[in-house]
Amino acid sequence: MLKALELAGFKSFADRTRFDFPDGITVVVGPNGSGKSNIVDAMKWVLGSQSAKSLRGKEMSDVIFKGSQTRPAAGAAEATIVFDNADGNLPVDAPEVHVTRRVYRSGESEYLINKQSVRLKDVRDLIRGTGIGIDAYSLIEQGKVDRMLQANAKDRRAIFEEAAGISRFKAKKLEAERRLARVQSNLTRLSDIVEEVG
Ligand code: ATP
């Protein structure tokens, strides 16, 4: 389902760079420090990672190309992940879904789905239950297998629920329950007022 990743000004990728992931297995090779892990960082980042530490930096702006001896620093970092949606697996009416995240030196940041500005919540909703989220099992990094094996029953269950696509509905249910509670309390307040006035 992952089709491509496009980076610009992201960490060591100063120039616009596109990685295509054709069917089958893709292997990225290169010397130490050449930017292999930065590609995985970009995927986590575009899918909404809020933790600079998990991206091996101190601050979020650390993802912006910081310049080299031969070229100046970039003003912004951008990453776009392209999913093939021919099977309609993602709830977007388009054969391809582009999720973009951009951050400027000022700290301003934005998310886009197919070039439309959206909230982080929309990105999370889009990928929830598909197994491609940052907390899901599709990005298996060093130490993660260990953590999965050592997880308690509750955490392990969450991994299976994400894989089975249940977590999407659980989150929707929780949201609906919260809304219901708000309406209920508004209703109580309203009936108090009605009583007072009456
Ligand atoms: P290894 O095989 O050692 O794990 P790697 O290929 O995974 O290496 P990365 O860790 O992805 O390499 O890349 C690290 C490189 O990215 C370093 O050279 C670092 O200077 C560079 N880098 C990280 N952040 C930035 C940034 N904001 N601007 C420019 N370069 C950066």
UniProtKB/TrEMBL annotation:
Signal sequence coordinates: none
Residue ranges that the Swiss-Prot or TrEMBL entry lists as coiled coil: 166-193
Protein localization: Cytoplasm
Residues given in the record as ATP binding sites: 31-38
Domain notes: Contains large globular domains required for ATP hydrolysis at each terminus and a third globular domain forming a flexible hinge near the middle of the molecule. These domains are separated by coiled-coil structures.
Subunit architecture: Homodimer.
Family under the similarity heading: Belongs to the SMC family.
Reported function: Required for chromosome condensation and partitioning.
Protein name as annotated: Chromosome partition protein Smc
Species, as recorded: Stieleria maiorica
Name of the encoding gene: smc_6
Location of this fragment in the whole protein: 1 to 198 of 1198
